[in-house]
Amino acid sequence: MKKLLALILALCLATTLFANGGAETSTTAGKETIKAGFIFIGPAGDFGWTYAHDQGRLYAMEQLPWLETVVVESVPEGDAVRFIDRLVQEQKVDVVFTTSFGYMDDTINTAAKYPNVKFFHCSGFKRSTNVGTYMADMYQVYYLNGLMAGAKTQTNKIGYVAAFPIPELYRHMNAFARGVAEVNPEATINVKWIYAWYGPDMAREAAEALVAEGCDVLGFTEDTPTVIEVAQDYQDKGRDIWALSHYSPMQAYGKEAVFTGQLTDWGVLYVKMLQDYKAGKLDDMTNYDLLWLLEDDAVELGADWDNLISPDYVDDFKAITVDSEDFGTISIYDLVMKRREQMIQGREIFDPFMGPIYDQSGTMTVADGELASIGHLFAEMNYQLENFATPLPQ
Amino acid sequence: MQIDLLPRERSTGLQNLTILIGSLLAGLLAVSVVFALNGVNPALAIFSIFRGSFGSWYGIKETITKAIPLILIGSGLALAYKAKFWNIGAESQLLVGAIFATWVGLHWGPHLPAPVIVPLMFLAAFLGGALWGVIPAYLKVRFGINEIISTLMLNYIAAEFVKFLVVGPWKGASKGGYPYTDDLPAQAILSHFSYSRISPVLLVLAIIAALVLGWIVYRSRFGYEIRVIGENTHAARYSGINFFRTSLLIMVVSGGMAGLTGAGELMSIHHYLSYPETISAGYGFTAIIVAWLARLNPAFTIVSGLFFAGIIVGGDAIQISMGMPAATVSVFNGMILVFLIMGDFFISHKLRIRTGRASHA
Q1: Has residue B20 got a pLDDT over 80?
Q2: Taking 90 as the threshold, does the pLDDT of residue A233 lie above it?
Q3: Chain B interface, mutation test: which of A13, A18, A82, most B Cβ atoms within 10 Å?
């Protein structure tokens, strides 16, 4: 018994020694450095949303030598307060990034407790003197994907594996559908809702079901490359099923199955926000709202960062031609490049959500010649367009 | 040398305590191996966990916040496990409780004062959890369906149903199209001690519930029946215990407590119904270990609930300061549970080591 006690005592002593050592190194950080805390919704290895944010953080670390970061992953939406408190009180961070919509109220409320810390909430719409918002949105890229999907489909059925019925999904799927309709008015879109951001098992099931229904091009919103793996399995068996890369560069998961996709580079956004902080530009953040689209370089077309379209498929898309209202007879490849150029110049030059837009029931939601407002796209778009074959969930 | 395993006729309190501490230490040792394999100093990591949860006011407050749901659910589970009714469905009983409370809060809340609506929501949630708990109890006593399977499966059904509600009929008009219900009215929100997330109402409720359930199990007639059923079902039947009625009642209490927790989390922390994983964060499963560490005495869940809340809260600390992945905490909890259950084996069995030749050669 005495031996046991002695052992426990020794252990306690050892731990306090180590603990003190650890504490010292973390407080000796120079005044020049800026410490940023990141709160992630999923695991950084999900290869989707959180992975992309983590890549952005690493990029910012590379670009900004004065930056130090702390990461907390897999934080449930109801629990953000606890992690923000700890980051501020114990890690003494100067800046906090909360990277999921569900953290919105917690971010606003906690920020009020810490007026000297700056907060950035991703994808929300509430701001305050020390809370700004930021978002990189890919709807324009989805439209470009739609042009290619519409041209590629042989069955005239396009599948979509969707996470949750929220405006973000409808915005992306509708932009995609606008692209499909522009080159292939015959094609329709089948949607399967899986009600999860991270759900490889359900995504696989949904993708298989869509293929069984006759879909041959699959888009998806889910945080893993599962849908691509399904498509690649079919390619390996000699059947032409394609999938679009989502969020992260997923080309490697579907060498034949993937011809392009959507990419987001949060790095440039993080660098911008941290530089603004360093430059002391954030006295009042009530109007600090960054929404970066194609023109701002935060999103890009492609399934890897080197190619807009997989080199294996460039010739295919050059060979297919359509009659375009704006450009006359043109190859799909050229159409995609021209539209991309236009959107890089700005929403007012070209935008997939230029009216007239009709929802599935035929009701006009955006008038002829009118450009859908950002507010409409980000909060009010809870409908599907005319070329969807499946009804709204329930 | 030969090792014999013999059933232990009776165990003393000291033996119990020694084995409990022994299995905890063995669990910590096993966890240490995992830490070491990850290149982290295990002593430092375990110390950081407990410093993160009990080493500062901030940590203590968060630990209590997390302990409340664990104690509420854990005490109800301990009661059921005492009767050897293996309720693995507290997670979904919590969710159904939250559903009932949300409905009452959103429909009646705006018209009623706080002293009426708050108890009403608790009551509704208790009924909801109880209802969900009684289903597997009925299936077991009526058709002999294994309750481990049925309670586990009901978890998925309830979770899917919550998703259905928040993306469908209950989606709030004020939530920008996101799958959450509208906020509960102000009078249905439980206030907190300042600078914390601890609701005084819930804290008192949790402590009283644990003590009362402890009293029920060890001092009341119902508790006696629970313990007899747990020891020997046949003996219980012969001694005239109404097996059917008692089994259902056990799950009313066990499920009801989990349902109550759902209402508490909703009114204190979340303020609206959203995805199941947000509403619960796995309390229904962690509470299983809490009940076990309490040696199935509901009153002891106050201590074991705090212990596991400490591990959850301290788990953030090792993630933040040491860069260990979030899954570390789950590994930690799982290991401790395995060793506690192994320890249990040594309470009911003893080892006898004999040296030399076996006697019955």
Answers
A1: yes
A2: yes
A3: A82
Q: How far apart are CA A383 and CA A267, in angstroms?
A: 32
Given a contact cutoff of 8 angstroms between Cβ atoms, the answer to whether A184 and A206 are in contact is: no
For A104-141, the pLDDT digits (tens) are 989 999 999 999 999 999 988 899 999 999 999 999 99
- Smallest CA–CA distance, residue A382 to chain B, in Å, is 7
Domains of chain B and CATH, by start: 57-328 (1.10.3470)
Nearest to residue B304, comparing CAs of B322, B291, B288?
Answer: B291
Q: In what order do the strands lie in the sheet with A289-292?
A: A67-72, A34-39, A95-98, A118-122, A131-136, A289-292
Chain A's closest residue to B59, CA to CA, is A86
Using a CB-CB cut-off of 8 Å, the residues of chain A touching B320 are 70-72, 83, 86-87, 90-91
**Distance between CA atoms of residues B242 and B237, nearest Å:** 7
pLDDT in tens, A11-58: 444 444 444 333 333 333 445 899 999 999 888 887 888 999 999 999
DSSP A178: H
For the segment B147-163, what is each residue's pLDDT rounded down to a tens digit? 999 999 999 999 999 99
Contacts of A283 (CB under 8 A, 6+ apart): none
Q: Does A7 touch chain B (CB under 8 A)?
A: no
Q: Min CA distance, A263 vs chain B (Å)?
A: 23
Q: B residues 266-295 near A, CB within 8 Å?
A: 269-270, 274-275, 277-279, 281
Beta carbon pairs, A and B, within 8 Å: 101
- Whether B56 shows a pLDDT value over 90: the answer reads no
Using the CB atoms, write b or e for B232-251: b if 16+ within 10 Å: eeeebeeeebebeebbbbbb
- Flag the least confident range among A12-21, A31-40, A170-179, B43-52: A12-21
Q: What is the mean pLDDT of residues A251-278?
A: 96
Domains and CATH numbers, chain A: 33-137+266-296 (3.40.50.2300), 139-246+320-380 (3.40.50.2300)
Which of A:193-232 have CB within 8 Å of B? 195
Residue numbers of A between 282 and 321 with CB closer than 8 Å to B? none
pLDDT over 60 (residue B360): no
* Peptide bond between residue B115 and the one before it cis (omega within 30 degrees of 0): no
The identity of residue A53, as a single letter, is H
| Distance in angstroms between the alpha carbons of the first and the last residue of chain B | 13
Could you tell me which of B73, B170, B188, B72 has the C-alpha nearest to residue B120? B188
Q: Do A86 and B56 touch (CB under 8 A)?
A: no
Work out the minimum CA distance from B244 to partner chain A, whole angstroms. 39
Among chain A residues, CA nearest to B329: A74
* Of A289, A292, A304, the residue nearest A266 (C-alpha): A292
Predicted TM-score (pTM) above 0.90: no
